[in-house]
């Protein structure tokens, strides 16, 4: 069919419209491409110059990609790392830790982390925190991970310094405690070793009860100085062979408060002074010096109270012969829940009846260790 001028004009108009639309679409595409390129460049800059080392690893822990920070951490060029084993940069004693970490990440798909010792290309060792996240494929399988490496060497050094400072503080504190023990027992030969034995028994009770490792030193060290306040009691009263008068007994009862007043001036990391103050309190409020009852008495003091009674009854005193361990255990059994904490009593009885704890043998061994200047650690 022959096109008339009007049809030609219409066709030209439509072509011009399509041309304009295409030009606009091309302009938009160029703008989007430019933005994508800028975003990609920005991402690559952030990726490469981030302070954290980023690695892409395959399921065999081969390095697929690494940023500049990662290559600098390992002291190698990027191109030299790609295709190599990530594990070749891990210290031999951290290989197992990484193996279990990476296997778990790929198996579960859950992000995980671990601390490793890593190696630079020149053999220099550094501490690193490794964080890995699985990257699922389109089919759901997991064959790659994104793994971040953070140099924590400085943090580890600070932790080690802090540990050494704590160790120095503990050694100074132990020396202070030992001096107090010697000062106390020089004045009272009849109770020589009593505080050491109480401390040892109390620590074993605390261990049997499952008291946490960070609280057990409080039990042990309080036991070592629980009678420190007796240095204010005249020696003739402490060593008196006969029955004490009420006035004399009242003077002895002041020893827990006197010990508290001495110990509160020392900056212990545990409430040693408070425990010593309360070790003669009883659950029913019949104890001294403040007549506290129930949970108002700290747990460590409740442990110390049972250990003190058991050791005191089992040992010789100026005014009586030793009553023996059977009488001591009978005492705490009879007054369980009334005077003494039931859980503490049960733990103490279990030590003697089920675990074969022999106070006399344990006392002998422990005192030898102490007198030889051994560290009086609370751990067995």
Helix content: 40-55%
CATH topology title of the largest domain: Hypothetical protein af1432
Tally of helical runs = 15
Overall SS class: alpha+beta
* Rg of Cα set: 37 Å
- What do the pLDDT scores average to? 86
Shape: elongated
What is the domain total for the residues?
A: 3
Largest sheet composition:
5 strands, antiparallel
Note the beta-strand portion.
Answer: 5-15%
State the fourth-level CATH superfamily of the largest domain.
Hypothetical protein af1432
- Main-sheet strand order equals 2-1-5-4-3
Structure summary, number of beta strands: 5
The CATH class of the largest domain is: Mainly Alpha
The H/E string reads: HEEHHHEEEHHHHHHHHHHH
Summarize the structure.
With 380 residues, the chain is α+β, with helices and mostly antiparallel strands.
Structure description:
With 380 residues, this protein is of the alpha+beta class. It has 15 helices and five strands. It has helices at 5-49, 68-73, 78-81, 95-108, 153-186, 194-209, 216-225, 235-238, 246-253, 255-263, 272-278, 299-314, 325-334, 342-353, 359-371; strands at 53-58, 63-66, 112-119, 125-136, 142-151. A hairpin with a 4-residue loop joins β1 and β2. α6 crosses α15, α10 packs antiparallel against α11 and α11 crosses α12. The protein starts with a helix and ends in a 9-residue tail after the last helix.
